[in-house]
Every structure is written in C-alpha cells, then in structure tokens.
C-alpha cells in the first residue's frame, strides 16, 4: 500500500499479476480486493489499469463517488502518470514526443497493438532520457493518452524496445530477470481542485535495480 485516504487507494502492484481475470486458473488482483476494504462496506474498484507485466502505482476508488471522480481525472488526461522504462540502445535525442496511432491487431495474427496511421486511435507519449550505460537507456515516459501497451509499442516503433518485452522486443533477452522493464513510478491526481493533488511514488523493484543502477540510478533501494 502506497497511499490511503477515505476515497482513494494506491497500490504498489508487482509485475506478473493481472488486474482482471484472464487465463483460467491465473491469480489476479480482483480476487484480493475484499481484503482492501479497511472498514468500507464494499471493496475498492480499479480506477485505471496496468498491464500484467508492469509494476508500480495502481489507483483504486473506495466508493462510487470516488470512482466517478477518478474516472473524470483519467478520462480528461488530468492524471500525471510517470513510468520508468529500460530500453535497448540510446535515442539520438535527449527527449521527445512519440505520436503514432495505435490499433489492436486481429486476433488471428496474434494479439498485440500495431502502428496504423489511418485506422488507429491517437496515441502520444512524452519521453526523456534519464541515463544510459552505452547499451541500455533509462527513460522517463509520460503517456499523454491511455492506449493499451502504448509505451511498449511506441518505444519499439522508434527502434528502442523495452528490455524483457516478448511481444514488441524481438528477443530482448532476460536482462530484467525474465520480467518487463517497465515500472509505473509515480502518479499525481488533482482529486480536489481546492486542495493539493494526491502525489504518490512507487519504489524501484529489486528486479529492476541492477539495470537502472547501470544507467545511473543512485537512490537508496527498499529492503527485502
């Protein structure tokens, strides 16, 4: 648990657990929401989603009114979401915005998102280079839209797939301990306009620490 008040919960979701039911028999977050009531009459519900393989900040609403307000914030692009990604190679620029339309590829060809300038939905990702070891780069990514797999598909499209990405990475290996090198580092929510925003940061997972440290990350790591 990263944050809790009377309306909002923010969890530190581990990589490898889905937020919704998927494959039969798989564990998913929905099975555990009842344990997060903390005195409320009903379990909290998801205000947005994170991919199964992404770790970090996941926002939930604790009651119907909170969910409605959080829905507005995410739908209107008012939530400031920051992701950390480790990618293959070094971008030529220090920062930029990727604006490439995305659409879901037909299931008969294998599920994934693909670039489609004509038929895809608008998708934009702002990124900034935070560090590099010559082989890998540490990027700060801020999705300006909320498409599925947006950061993964966009980084791969500019020639810098995420480490550990089996869908878009074309064999990026297991440098991150067989997990995707994508972490929802922080989220800022202007929940009540007359009050300071809710600002939450998720610690770096130990599995990603060696990659980030090689690229220049130097903050203390959590124990465990």
From TrEMBL:
Q: Which residues form the Pseudouridine synthase RsuA/RluA-like domain?
A: 8-157
Q: Which UniProt keywords apply?
A: Isomerase
Which molecular-function annotation in GO is an example for this chain?
isomerase activity
List the Pfam families. PseudoU_synth_2
Supply the SUPFAM superfamilies for this chain. Pseudouridine synthase
Look at the named UniProt entry and state the broad enzyme category this protein falls under. Answer: isomerase
Q: Does the keyword Isomerase apply?
A: yes
Q: What is its EC number?
A: 5.4.99.-
Asked whether the keyword Manganese is assigned, the reply is no
- InterPro entries from the UniProt entry: PsdUridine_synth_cat_dom_sf, PsdUridine_synth_RluA-like_CS, PsdUridine_synth_RsuA/RluA, RluA_PseudoU_synthase
Which PANTHER family would you find in this protein's record? MITOCHONDRIAL RNA PSEUDOURIDINE SYNTHASE (PTHR21600), RIBOSOMAL LARGE SUBUNIT PSEUDOURIDINE SYNTHASE D (PTHR21600:SF44)
Q: What is this protein called?
A: RluA family pseudouridine synthase
Organism of derivation: Phaeospirillum tilakii
Q: In the record, what lineage is assigned to the organism producing the protein?
A: Bacteria, Pseudomonadati, Pseudomonadota, Alphaproteobacteria, Rhodospirillales
